[in-house]
Design brief:
511 residues; mainly alpha; three-stranded antiparallel β-sheet; two-stranded antiparallel sheet; 48% helix; binds 1-deoxynojirimycin
Length: 511
């Protein structure tokens, strides 16, 4: 398939054409489906273009094309791992033997090869694995920065394990795989990253958060670490690894995290608190309410983490996040777009944020967090459809009522809505509309040429901050996948056939 190649060749041209001042979406007369199809195609293109762009070492993923104001022309361990996990998702979805699947496999192998280069010889002693970012020629970034960042090695291990599993399932070369990412000496590949994660003084110790601002222990970091250890144990078994020290370390760390993570739930706050054991850095997050919570559960969804997206604790946090941002950003005052489609609030990192994408003034909503809200709700709907019922427990009633537009009060006891009950279909359909309204929000502020930056100006709605943020593109692709999954589930269920389609304008009576 020539498509990916031609897209790559086309990209410099598109970049030149697209360099005019972005405006808000003009609304040609298409709908969300049409826009999302176009935007996703562009996002895949933009994402791939930021992998090993000209002048960088093979395997490098630049965080954005922006080289000054702000300079994101670096390989971040976190961003690159998240982006390559999406690249692996494209690989998983590509048919074996096609040119596209070959190209994607090569990209993954180059990423793994770069990881080896960054891991060995060690940059900065064992602590070097917590280095947050590298220069694009593969040398260490030595300027002042919030370091270490202990989510990075966990995310990298998760991505590499996902790739290795797929590569083996496709009959890939096991000898090559072992040499690249599971050598017996364990100087590079998955094991050093997980040994770092499992170390009480390194990965489990204090570090900076994913926003690179606060030093402490974090819900996000701990959640991805936990998932990496679970995946690491599974993969160690696949590799027939009988290194009992390693197994014991992983197990001890996993148990440690399972004991520590519930401490991030605060009944008093009514939401997950992102930071515990604050030990320095920015101290402006009085609320301790952070959209990183959503990313944590989405980035670990495959590993069935301790807190799934469907945990009441996460549902409460989600509701608190939308409430906090709804009134904070002036653009959220617009509740429906020019064609009458509902607009959900755009979400930012946390209410007290002052990073405006260039420097410090007032924080803005972020593309990737608004897309994450959509993905989060699609994930919940997928779960309902999988279970074939919706259980409305006292702890989840507020969430269900909110996302389905139901205004009834919370029930006093749990009850279940089975899928053959017409209410089930109405709830699913309304929740899908609500999830869509977060993508409508992105659509409202995305420029017609599809180029996405990091942020959306809170007052004007224009793109702001690092241009062509690779992670923004990744977030569109994964939100679209989550939406597709919901659609596919509905397509295969007789309950959702056209002639059976529920009237989603009906007021819903949950009780
Ligand atoms: C401050 C921001 O808050 C942080 O997230 C960012 O990584 C650094 N500046 C560097 O751009
Ligand atoms: C700032 C973000 O806060 C951080 O999470 C990210 O790694 C860098 N920008 C690069 O995209």
């Amino acid at each position: 398939m020539q498509l990916l190649y031609s897209l790559l060749l086309l990209f410099p041209l598109l970049a030149v054409l697209g360099s005019a001042v972005p405006t808000r979406h003009d609304y040609e007369d298409d709908d969300l489906d049409a826009w999302l199809a176009r935007q996703t195609e562009f996002a895949v293109e933009g994402l791939l273009a930021n992998i090993s762009p000209e002048g960088t070492m093979r395997g490098v993923v630049v965080a954005a094309t922006s080289r000054d104001h702000p300079n994101y022309w670096y390989h971040w361990t976190r961003d690159s791992a998240l982006v390559m996990s999406v690249t692996n998702g494209l690989y998983v979805r590509s048919s074996a033997g096609t040119e596209a699947s070959q190209l994607l496999q090569t990209r993954m192998l180059e990423f793994v090869t770069l990881a080896r280069h960054l891991q060995f010889p060690p940059r900065n002693g064992a602590e070097g694995l917590g280095e947050p970012k590298f220069n694009v020629d593969g040398t260490t970034f030595t300027g002042p920065w919030g370091r270490p960042q202990n989510d990075g090695p966990a995310l990298r291990a998760l991505t590499i394990i996902q790739f290795a599993e797929e590569y083996l399932a496709r009959g890939g070369d096991e000898t090559l795989l072992r040499e690249l990412l599971y050598p017996a000496h364990a100087r590079w590949g998955i094991k050093p990253d997980l040994a770092f994660v499992a170390s009480p003084t390194l990965g489990l110790g204090l570090g900076f958060d994913l926003w690179e601002e606060v030093k402490g222990h974090f819900f996000y970091t701990r959640t991805v670490q936990h998932a990496a250890l679970v995946a690491g144990q599974r993969f160690a078994a696949t590799m027939g690894d009988d290194d009992s020290w390693y197994w014991a370390d992983l197990e001890r760390a996993r148990q440690h995290l399972e004991a520590a993570l519930p401490n991030h739930w605060s009944r008093a706050h009514g939401h997950i608190i992102e930071t515990l054991n604050w030990a320095g850095g920015v101290d402006n997050k009085a609320s301790n309410l952070d959209a990183a919570t959503l990313l944590a559960v989405l980035h670990t969804r495959r590993e069935n983490g301790l807190f799934s997206p469907y945990s009441p604790e996460i549902q409460f946090t989600f509701l608190r996040l939308i409430d906090a941002f709804e009134s904070l950003y002036p653009i959220n005052g617009e509740k429906s777009d020019p064609v009458g489609d509902p607009l959900a609030p755009a979400l930012g990192r946390y209410a007290e944020d002052v990073y405006d994408g260039y420097g410090k003034s007032a924080g803005n909503p972020w593309v990737l967090l608004t897309a994450a809200a959509a993905e989060y709700i699609y994930a919940s709907i997928t779960q309902w459809l999988k279970e074939g019922e919706i259980t409305v427990a006292p702890s989840s009633a507020r969430f269900i009522n909110r996302v389905t537009g139901n205004h009834d009060d919370a029930p006093l006891c749990a009850f279940t809505i089975p899928q053959h009950d017409p209410t089930f279909r109405v709830l699913v359909s309304n929740a899908t509309r609500f999830a869509d309204s977060f993508l409508n929000r992105v659509r409202r502020h995305a420029p017609p040429d599809g180029r996405l930056s990091e942020q959306i100006n809170r007052e004007t709605g224009f793109m702001q901050g690092a241009s062509d943020l690779t992670w923004s593109y990744a977030s569109i692709v994964t939100a679209n996948w989550a939406r597709e999954e919901v659609k596919q589930q509905q397509a295969t269920s007789s309950l959702f056939r056209q002639d059976n389609a529920p009237d989603n304008a009906l007021p819903v009576a949950v009780q």
